Amino acid sequence: MKKTNQKKYDCAEIEKRVQAYLDNHLSDEEILMIEDHLSYCLPCDKKVEFEQKLKEIIKLKAAEKEYPKALEDELKKIIRNR
Ligand SMILES: [Zn+2]
What we know:
By secondary structure, the chain is mostly helical. The chain has one domain (7-80). Helices cover 71% and strands 0% of the residues. The chain has helices at 11-22, 28-40, 42-62, 69-80. The relative contact order is 0.12. Zinc ion binds at residues 11, 14, 37, 41, 43-44.
């Protein structure tokens, strides 16, 4: 596939791939496509940021560790700004 012929991901494409993206299950090409979209689409950027924070919290909770209060506050801030 030629890079110049690639169609850009739309928001639905990002939505479908956000989990795989955060889990590093995507190809370099897909990652570039997503990061390109995130560079100009604020709602998707926020969504990815939110999912990422949520993942961190879940991971920390799963490890039965106290998660930093700052992280929780940050998450709440993101939710409020949606
Ligand atoms: Zn978008």
